[in-house]
Every structure is written in C-alpha cells, then in structure tokens.
C-alpha cells in the first residue's frame, strides 16, 4: 500500500483513505444477518424477523458502525505504513470524486513532534537537602501534646492569656451596618494560635469572664472575605468563659498513649524522627524533581500538538467537576467550565510529558519491577497495616500505573541531576515543611 502524506502545518498531516463500497455493503449485510438471529419484533418469533424489517430498523446504525470500524482499520494501516506517530484522534471527512465503486475519506491529524534537548551539562539545577534536627523533633512532640491537651475553666478573677480557649459572643459592623459572618454566639477559639486575626486576639487577651469590650479592626487587603477585605469594622465582644489548657507531660505514659511499642520517651522520639525523615525525603524529592522539570522545559525545543493540549484540558475540567461534586456543589457534573482557564497549564503538562517521554525512551529510564515494589513498600510504611496497603496497590492496574508514573519521573530526575551542574543547598527544616 502506497500512502501519500500531505503536510499542512508543523505537526498537522492529511492522508486520503479509500474503501471499496462492496466491502462496506458486504460487512453491513453480514452484521444484519447476525443481528436477525436474536432481534425481537412484534408479530414475529425470535429469529424469524424478515431481513427487510431488520434492515429498516437497524440498517443506519449498523452502517455507521461498520464505516467507523473499517475507516479506523484503514487509517491505522496507513499511518503504520507511513511510520507516523499520531497524536490524538484524527478528523475524518468523506471526500467527493472517488472512483466508481470506491469511497474516499480525508483523515486530518497531528503527529508527535521531534523533541530537541539542549546540552544538559550547560544547565544549573538547585538540589536541596534537609536534616531532621532535635529541634524539629521537639516541635513535633509539642504538636502531639497539643493534640491531646485538656482544658479547665479559669477562676472568674483571672484574665484571658496566651493559649487559653475562650468562648465569646461577638458582633461586627462596618459603617454601622452588620455584615455576613460578622456575628456569632458561643464562639470558641484559642488565643495566639492564629485562629483569629491578631487584632482580634489582642483585644480579647486580658479580658475577664463576663466583660464586654468594643474595638476597631482593620481587615487586611488580601482577606479571604472579599466583601470586607481592606475595610475597618467595629466589634462588640462579650467574653463568656475562659479555659486554661493543660499539656500532658512527655513521659513513658505519654509515649504509651500514642501506641509506641516500647512505651518510652526515647522510642517516641525515635519514631517521630523516622516519620519526619520519611516526610522530609518525600518533600526534598518533590522539590528537586520540580527543579529538574523546570530546567527541562527551558532547555527543550518542540512543537506541542493541539489535540493533546485539548485532551489534557478536558481531563482537567473533569477533575475540577469531580472536585466540585466532592464539595457538594449542585449539578457539578455539568458545570460550565471554560477550557481556556486550563489552557496554559495543560500545554505545560503536555510539553513536559513529551520531553520526559523522549528521555525515557532514549535512555531506558522505564520503571523496573523492583523499583515499583520498593516505592509501594516505602509508601505503605506510614500506614498501620503496610502489607494490606501493598496488596491494595498491586491489586489494581490503575493504581499501579500511577505509581509507575512517579517512579519514571524519579528516574528522569536522577538521570538529569547526574548530567547538569548541581548547586547543592541545605534547606532549614521549617522552610522545607512550610514551602
């Protein structure tokens, strides 16, 4: 078969496909005969419906099905013959002027681009590392203590202080007018833990149970409530109750309450360190991998197939709708979300995917079975029953494919870091965890 490929644009191609009308008609007739054996129609016994009735009822749909199958088959044979890698689905249009007894179609499609990657040795990539310090362990233990703290009501004579849990009634007004979300009764918050704006914290700090107070509060310009952002409000607060917090002591009993096997402070700190090291490793890897991917995007030259970008944008739209549905948004499945919102991100994802794919093919960076197993086992360690988590991943093809994609990216990052100029940087623990 001789295939003539017409170049329309950088990546766009067109080929003409031909089919014998007799082949189409023969296949349609064959499928209708097969269908007639099981089709049901009023007034006829099963398997005895006349072909004319079957053809009248199902002829159009069967003909459409056959055309799709045959055109798809011929298209696949043509692009294989021409050694073309098709990106996305082709657009098929019937062509006029075909020879007698033939049907002709134009198939317009895009092909995968050539990826040109510059010299990796000329690129600088920052590689961060972070140490789990004793201070980081102390901070995490304090968080565990706060998660198990208790509260006891303060005497009425004692003022509210840092760390106290207070119960208040409040009402806020802007220019004398109440606003949405500006009032509540029996509202609880902890002073000094960032649950309220600092001005609100400062106003309540030092008050005693039963006291009322008015104060002005300036909302930040970037406040999440857009209706009040940047505006000044007057608040009336009545303090109903003050409760002092009590943190458990860090001792063997505390370790036991957390399920630590050896029920000792040393074992507790060792367990915290192990978990922090696992989290640090994950975050460092993600950060370094992002640096590698940014470098690849800057270094690579390629044209991006529009069909792949459109397909990626559609996947992102479906993801956004699924997220809306989880949040309880009504009719989330049909929410009108313009594709152009995701266009830049979709193009970046496709571009990066093509570059990574080229590196994987060129340097055999595919995920090995032992790498998949090791990655799954490492993830499973953070769960109570690791063996069940491992089985859960290995028992589902889609979940395994997601792990494979991560491992491949890790392989690419490791390969690139071995070729580029690496700038090593030690990152403080807190900066890594909040960055």
Main β-sheet: number of strands, strand sense, barrel status?
5 strands, antiparallel
Low-pLDDT regions: none
| Helix and strand composition category | alpha+beta
How many strand units? Answer: 13
Q: What is the 3D shape?
A: elongated
Radius of gyration: 33 Å
Report the span from N to C terminus.
Answer: 58 Å
CATH architecture of the largest domain: Orthogonal Bundle
CATH fold-level label of the largest domain: Trigger factor, domain 2
**Rounded mean pLDDT score:** 91
Which CATH class of the largest domain applies here? Mainly Alpha
The helix tally amounts to 12
Helical content stands at 40-55%
Topology:
Blueprint: E1 6-7, E2 12-20, H1 21-36, H2 51-81, E3 86-95, E4 102-111, E5 116-117, E6 124-129, H3 134-147, E7 150-153, E8 165-174, E9 177-190, H4 198-204, E10 212-218, E11 232-246, H5 252-257, H6 265-299, E12 300-301, H7 306-326, H8 343-363, H9 369-380, H10 386-394, H11 397-417, E13 421-426, H12 429-434
Parallel strand pairs: 6-13
Antiparallel strand pairs: 1-2, 2-4, 3-4, 5-12, 7-11, 8-9, 8-11, 10-11
Helix pairs in contact: 1-2, 3-6, 6-11, 7-8, 9-10, 9-11
Summarize the structure.
With 435 residues, this protein is of the alpha+beta class. It contains twelve helices and 13 strands. Helix 3 (134-147) packs across helix 6 (265-299) and helix 6 packs across helix 11.
């Amino acid at each position: 078969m001789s295939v003539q490929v017409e170049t329309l644009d950088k990546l766009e191609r067109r080929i003409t496909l031909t089919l014998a009308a007799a082949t189409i008609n023969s296949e349609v007739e064959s499928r209708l005969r097969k269908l007639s054996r099981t089709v049901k129609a009023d007034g006829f016994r099963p398997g005895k419906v006349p072909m004319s009735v079957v053809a009248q009822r199902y002829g159009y749909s069967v003909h459409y099905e056959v055309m799709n199958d045959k055109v798809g088959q011929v298209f696949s044979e043509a692009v294989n013959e021409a050694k073309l890698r098709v990106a996305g689905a082709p657009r098929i249009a019937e062509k006029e002027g075909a020879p007698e007894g033939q049907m002709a179609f134009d198939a317009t499609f895009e092909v995968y681009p050539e990826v040109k990657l510059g010299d990796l040795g000329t690129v600088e990539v920052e590689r961060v590392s972070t140490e789990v310090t004793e201070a980081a362990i102390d901070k995490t233990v304090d968080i565990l203590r706060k998660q198990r703290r208790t509260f006891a009501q303060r005497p009425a004579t004692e003022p509210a202080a840092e760390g106290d849990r207070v119960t208040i009634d409040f009402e806020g007004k802007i220019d004398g007018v109440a606003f949405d979300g500006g009032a509540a009764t029996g509202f609880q918050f902890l002073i000094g833990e960032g649950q309220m704006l600092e001005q609100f914290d400062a106003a309540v700090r030092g008050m005693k149970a039963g006291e009322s107070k008015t104060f002005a509060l300036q909302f930040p310009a970037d406040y999440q409530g857009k209706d009040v952002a940047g505006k000044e409000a007057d608040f009336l607060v009545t303090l109903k109750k003050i409760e002092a917090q009590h943190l458990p002591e860090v001792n063997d009993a505390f370790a036991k309450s957390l399920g630590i096997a050896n029920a000792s402070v040393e074992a507790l700190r060792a367990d915290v360190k192990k978990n922090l090291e696992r989290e640090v490793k994950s975050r460092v890897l993600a950060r370094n991998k992002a640096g590698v991917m940014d470098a690849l995007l800057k270094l690579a030259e390629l044209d991006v197939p529009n069909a792949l970008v459109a397909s990626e944008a559609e996947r992102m739209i479906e993801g956004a709708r699924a997220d809306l549905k989880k949040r309880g948004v009504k009719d989330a499945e049909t929410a009108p979300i313009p594709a152009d919102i995701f266009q830049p991100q979709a193009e970046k994802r496709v571009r990066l995917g093509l570059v990574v794919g080229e590196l994987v093919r060129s340097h055999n960076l595919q995920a090995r079975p032992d790498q998949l197993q090791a990655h799954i086992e490492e993830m499973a360690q953070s769960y109570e029953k690791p063996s069940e988590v491992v089985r859960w991943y290995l028992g589902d093809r889609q979940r395994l494919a997601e792990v494979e994609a991560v491992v491949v990216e890790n392989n690419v990052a490791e390969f690139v870091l071995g070729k580029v100029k690496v700038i090593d940087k030690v990152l403080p623990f807190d900066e890594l965890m909040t960055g």
